[in-house]
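Supplementary Methods, section 5.1.

A reviewer requested that the exact input to the structure prediction be made available. We therefore reproduce it here, unchanged from the version used in the analyses.
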Amino acid sequence: MNIFTETERQDLLSCLHIGRDTFLKAVAGLSEEQCSVRSTPECWTIRECVEHVASVEKLMFRALEKAPVTGAYANPSRDQSIRHSMLDRKQKLMAPEISRPSARFSRTDEAIDFFKQNREQVIAFVERNQDDLRQRSLDHPLLGPIDGYQALLVLALHPQRHAEQIEEIKACSGFRRLVAAS
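The structure derived from this sequence is encoded token-by-token as follows.
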């Protein structure tokens, strides 16, 4: 019995498109100088946010592709709490070391292109995949055991979380001064 439904597939596709579009809108038209603004000393820059999102997109998708089909279902009742935790910026999350910014890209637009290429691969995977994604199991570094559908849900919503973070940076006084000076 396959419990990954066509409704869930369509929901994932919608979330993947919305997440991509929201994220790309947040970074559209920004200069490298603007992407280097830090709202507070401990916060990431826009460039670091973009690098993180691009890196996570590749890492999570690779992990999902390699995830074993266990035949054991994760807990679908966790879907809503995953949605909430991914979109709730009041709840701060510490990125795992492997996905923290480390200047992997020489320019922000390279990271954006990397994200877009990987997002298209994820969308194509969801469109063509006929497996029961609920039977794939992964161990997420922050969420613990999740199934394939939940991994894709995290991946779909993750850019929206950081688009909000980017909007917070754009609202800081240092960013506004830079924009006003240009």
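The domain at 6-181 is CATH 1.20.120.450 (Four Helix Bundle (Hemerythrin (Met), subunit A)). These observations are discussed further in the main text.
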